[in-house]
Structure formats: structure tokens, C-alpha cells
Protein: 6-phospho-beta-glucosidase
Organism: Marinilactibacillus psychrotolerans
Amino acid sequence: MSVFPKNFLWGGAIAANQAEGGYREGGKGLSVTDILPVGPNRFNDLTLEVKEGVFYPSHEAIDFYHTYKEDIQLLAGMGLQCFRTSIAWTRIFPNGDESEPNEEGLAFYEEMFKTLREYGMEPVITLSHFETPLHLVKEYGGWKNRKLIQFFENYCRTVFERYKGLVRYWMTFNEINHAHTLPLFGAGIHVTEKTEQPLQVIYQASHNMFVASAKAVLIGHEIDKDNQIGCMLSLSPIYPATCNPEDVFEANELRRRSLFYSDVHLRGEYPAYFERIKKENNIELDTEPEDFEFIKQGTCDYLGFSFYRSSLHEAGMKILGNTGGILGKKNPYLKETNWGWPIDPLALRYVCNELTDRYQKPLFIVENGIGVIDEIKEDGSIEDTERMMYLKDHVEMMKEAIKDGCIILGYTWWGPIDIVSAGTGEMEKRYGFVYVDKNNDGSGTRERRKKKSYDYYKQIIETNGKNLDYIHLTKKE
Ligand code: BGP
């Protein structure tokens, strides 16, 4: 008997903006990701425009818009039972504020979801994955404006109705807690160094998103009682750098800055500590009395989260982050990836237990993976042992967490096929079990090729997590 329950969902996860391309096809409008160039500084000096002569990786990405049928077929070869992707809001409402949806966009996803089902994959759909319509940011100031609640409601109602019976698992906002460190992604707001009172803006946007998420949950349940609607956070844990009580306390405060989001989403009310945050930072939220009723009624059904690494925090450190979480001090006990992300499988067990203790709600590990530089050998093979090791160690810890009593609905490996990196726009930060021949500058044939890890994940799924041995898949030197 496997430790994993029979109905455990093994799958893979991508996001529309990192895979589809076709950025102006089928009536699509521009989203915040469409104006981000390649490089670690892709968020600096943004003018919120597409500039002539600049390469934007999301514009073509891996061309999933045109190739999704073949790609899904290829991924199905591993036996995936679910597939997480997002609906690009701008394919349905190109500017975000229209009253009528774009039929071409709706038809595109209908076909995609049917294809997933044909291959036995349950669609797991994020409603907003770093894809706020650019028009809403420019004209309304993004999520800090309450008007977006209504626009989002309209969008959600449209897709819930259209995909009723096709999609059951939903998530509202991807990594909503990135509102602090990556506000354009996390909260669709353009916060720069010149922004006065950034915390006011961040918490106002967060409040509006909480109301919007709660409304989405209520509408989704009303349209189809079988809908399971989760929230989604980035929850790689934060350790204190030392046992100095100052470090311990601050690391916990920083952790609470993230858990604040799941507290509201899952408990249906603001945590007590928010009063103090507001007072100390002169935050005054623009709210309506019914907002709190919606937040109370529209709690999420499960907690979806991403997990990549852990971070180390020292009191007084400047708080910076990227897509993987907080950027802290170097942890001498852990190895790091080429991108400096510490590899810490035990932290996954730690975090599953932390979240189960705090919420007693089902968890869904909707992102976990490792960005690696892959090398194609002369015989055309790609022996990605590092990726297999990472996968093994994390599945092992997920198994332990289940033994600890955590309810985990499923596991979707981040980027089962190589896609554009959200943090840097690179293609060469590869997560996939399937290689895509494309380089950081956009060159390449876009040919797909299975890596060794493809067979490994297949084996894990086939044995429902029982057989984690990969040595037989690697070449003896
Ligand atoms: C998460 C995002 C994803 C994804 C992943 C890996 O923050 O939800 O969109 O890309 O991190 O990050 P990166 O692509 O920067 O390596």
C-alpha cells in the first residue's frame, strides 16, 4: 500500500503567460507580464509599455498557444492526473473592464480543458497568475482600486459558467503574498521607489483582492457546488539566522507577513495582529461594511502553495525577495541551485505541518521544482540527475508529511515542460521533464525532447509514489 491516498493528484503546473505566447492572437490584450524583458532586473524602470526593439519572452514563450494539443499528449505519457495552468484574463477580457467577453479566448480554453480531460487530466486552474490586464494597471492603478473587484467578479462568473463541468479545481490569485516583494505580480500594482506609503497601497490592494477572491468563491460555489476553490501563496519557510531571540522574533514576524494572506483567505477575517500593523504604518483602508461579510462567507476550500526553498533571516536585514520567496542569508547547511536557491526538502515537511496545524484545511502543493541548466549529450539524451534527486527528496518529505497527518490533495511539479522563468524571463532556467529547444534570446527550434526525469516522474506516478528509485535511469560511468 502506498502512503499516498488513491485519489492523490499527481500533475504538473504552468502559467499561461510563461508558456502560451500568442500574446496578441485571438483578441488577447496585454497583461503585466507582456512588458517585462529578460534578466534579473526585469522589474526595474518599467514604463508599462511595449518598447520597440526590446525582446519580451512572454510574447512567444514556448508557443503553447499553438502546440498545446501535442504538448498535452506528450505530458500525458507520464500519466499526469492533473494539470495546472492559468486562464490569461486578457484572452477573456482584453482590457479587463469590458462587459462582454471575447469568445475566441473562451473557445480556446474550452478546447484546452477538453483536451486535458481526453488525456485523463483534471484541470487545476488559476484565475490570475501574474496576469493582471495592463490596461487596469494604467487606467485604474491596478488592485489598489476597488473597481477591479467588479471586473474580476465579471471575469470569474464568465469562466465559471463557461467551464462548468470541465473544471472543478480553481485558485484565485497566484502567490498573493508576493504583494510585498513583487507587487506587480502579486497584486497587479506598480510600486516604485517613488511611491509614497507603499504599505498603504499594498494593503489596500490586498484588501480588494481578498474581497474579490471571496466573491469568486461564493459565485463559483453557487454556479457549481462541486467547485473546489483554493487560495495560492508562496510559502517557502523562513528560519531565524541564529537562536538570538531578535532573529527568531523577526523571522516569525516576516513569516506572519505571508501567513496574513492565508489567515484572511481561510479563516474569513483579519488576524488580530493586523490592527497593530495598520496603526504603526498609518494605514487606512478604504472598505465597505459588506466587504467583511464577503470575506467571512467566501473562505477558500483548500490552501494551494508553492514551495521551492527555505530562507534565513537575520534581524535588521533589508527584506528582499524574488519568485522563490524571501532572499535571506546563506544557509551553511544547504546546497544551492545555480540561481542561489537553497535546496531544503525537509522544509517541505516542516511547512506542511505548520500549515496543517494552523488551518486544518486540505493542502495542495501546486508548485515545486528546480531550475537547472540542462545539457544535451552527443547521443541526444539529457541526463538530469539533479532534477531527479530534487524530486525524489521532496516526494519523500511529502510522504512523511502525509504520515504526520497532513491532508494533501495533490502535487503539481512546476514546469513539467520548460517554460519562461517568471523571475528572470530566462528559458535556460529549466524546470521541465521535457526540454524545449529555445534560448534566452528567443532563438531555437522549439523542438521538444524528453529528459531522463520524464521516465522517473512516470514511474513515481505509476507506483503512486512508492518507487522513488532513479539509479537505474542514470548511466553508469
Ligand atoms: C513562482 C511562480 C511561477 C514560477 C516559479 C518559479 O513564484 O508562481 O510562475 O515561475 O515561481 O520561479 P522562476 O520562474 O522565477 O524560477
Observations:
- The radius of gyration is 21 Å.
- Residues 250 and 421 are 30 Å apart (CA to CA).
